[in-house]
Structures are given as C-alpha cells and as structure tokens.
Amino acid sequence: MFFVRSAEQIAAPCCGGSLCIVGSRKRVWYKSSGEKAKLVIRRLYCEACSKIHHELPDLLVPYKRYDAESIEGALSPSSRINVAADESTLLRWKCWFLAWVVYAAGCLQAIRIRTGLPVTGPSAETQSALHVLGRLVGDAAGWLKRVVRSLANSHLWATDPFCLSVRALSG
Fold it and tell me: What pTM was computed for the model?
C-alpha cells in the first residue's frame, strides 16, 4: 500500500482557499502489467467553499483505475506499451477519449487565455483526436498526465464527459 502525501502547500483549485486534511481513502490502481496496487489518498477540505478535494498523484487519471501511462499507451498509435487490459476496457478508453478530447482542448485553450499565453488555432484540419491535444501540450510521452493535471488543478475536470456535446473527429 502506498500513501500519497504532497510536500507542497496547495490552494483549493476552485477558489484558491486553504485546504485542511479531513481524512483519507483507499484507491485501487492497476499498472500496465495488470498488477493491482492500493493507494491511500488524502481528503482535503476547503474552508472557503466547503468542498472536498482528493489529492491524486499525477500518475492517475480521475475516475480511472489504470494509470495514465497505460491509458496513454492504449490511445497512442505508436505506443510501445503493452497493457494488461481486456478489449472492452481498451474500447471504453477510446470512446471516453473521443468524447473528452474536445472538452479538454477547449479547457486548455481557456487556461491559456486566462494566463495570458498566446492562443493559436490549427493551421489545417486536424488529422486525429491526438493532434488536438498535441498542439497544446506536446506529443511527447506523458501528454495525458499534462492534460489531466492542467484540467484538475484548474477545477475543470468533467466527471462525466459523455454528457458534453461532441463534434465528430476523424481518427
């Protein structure tokens, strides 16, 4: 069992209020080898907005049991990672990603605007769903972690992306 504890003093992602520890909970995590591990993550309470936040390490994607590296490997066409997951799980990840990528790209654009970074549109029609995110966070290994961390820390993580409107993407 692994205990997740950040050494950083972070503010609440939704309002910037101070967080205090109110407990912990167990979280299951599957590695790409299929090995099951357990994490103990802290529950943090924001006194300003009265919301509970969970402190996840960046190797996890919220609401997913496999690590970000496994999911990224299944989504990347040139992946060298073999994931010990059944075909239905791999298909669910791909469907989730196609629904989520449009929302994630919009959120990343909004974060760039808020922080004063330059925002540029695609020069040509996007080839695949991965190109949408690649323009914003790069396509080097760890791209999924970078997207998840940006959205989660900006309090923009959608718990159910299937209720979002989705435009058709090829790929």
Answer: 0.78
